[in-house]
């Protein structure tokens, strides 16, 4: 049965993807009462269900490394807490590199990851090809491999968090769109929805690509831009190595990992224009084919079984927005992950729980506050896909 919308809640989470359900779980687990999550459609139906499922700590920014590493620990224990099989394959991430500048960039990020306890290492071309034999060595200068990383099933992660959150007393309402947020002075009083009003003093924005619209309802600037990314899935491919890593051609952003008997394949499209475009197109396929011809030519002979389009939630510096609004009491946000949201979901659920409860999070999250764009303190993350 569909959950009934309550008249009041201690905290209202907007967005039912991995971020929202992780936050709901962590709050309910900590004993927060009257946790309410609102999702306009179905749980996980936004960007989470369209994600490639990669999980990693291979980043160039120490804060992203910490978020990724903390989340990897949670994914590894997901069967016990919150209790759900997520089909985790820790086959590693393999970044293929072509230039001296790229090699130096990844040597430096590898040093940072090693200092954080991650077993990342640089590889020569022969070692990279041994891990991903469908890759062509032409033009490669080396690679970076992080063996603790991998991929899992995003929908299962959402299901695990949502089921546990409900079991712990949280209310999750789907088919419920937020249409307004009312405040007295700088204090939130009411969330207005398509199914009625809810009295509350706290709103947490986990609305992904739709976050800027939610912020506008209460006068909070969340610089998040929606950008379509597309994925295809191939027919079965004979003799794929069982441990084939999540493999990324860093120059082009072409990537793939095993998906059943075939591959899940994606790549960014530099011609893509921002907007809420969720339809599939063929406009990016010629560039994908050209890249395959250079980097994995055997894939040109493999058919496609399907694919989908989803939205990245992009910020100006490709780093997340995590924090509490300056001008509105108890408006918290976790959004703008620019393609890294799924893999950072467990850690961010912890952090938002701690910010709500007035605790010190496990890592200093203040550099990801939205005010950084007004203070000209944007951060650089280079290991993006």
Radius of gyration: 21 Å
Q: Which shape, going by the Cα principal axes?
A: globular
For the terminal residues, how far apart are their CA atoms?
A: 39 Å
Number of strands: 19
Helix amount, in percent?
25-40%
* Category by helix and strand content: alpha/beta
Low-confidence stretches: none
Order of H and E elements: EHEEHEHEHEEHEEEEEHEEEEHEEEH
What is the mean pLDDT?
96
Q: Beta fraction of the residues?
A: 15-25%
Strand order, sheet with most strands:
5-6-4-14-15-16-13-17
- Individual helix count: 8
Largest sheet, strands/sense/barrel: 8 strands, mixed
What is the strand and helix layout of this fold?
Layout: E1 11-14, H1 18-29, E2 35-39, E3 54-55, H2 62-76, E4 93-97, H3 100-115, E5 121-123, H4 125-131, E6 142-146, E7 150-151, H5 154-167, E8 171-174, E9 178-184, E10 187-193, E11 196-199, E12 203-205, H6 211-218, E13 225-234, E14 246-249, E15 255-259, E16 262-267, H7 285-295, E17 304-314, E18 321-324, E19 331-335, H8 341-357
Parallel strand pairs: 1-2, 1-12, 2-8, 4-14, 12-19
Antiparallel strand pairs: 3-7, 4-6, 5-6, 9-10, 10-11, 13-16, 13-17, 14-15, 15-16, 18-19
Helix pairs in contact: 1-5, 1-8, 2-8
Structural features:
385 residues; alpha/beta; 8-stranded mixed beta sheet; 6-stranded mixed beta sheet; 8 helices; 19 strands; 26% helix
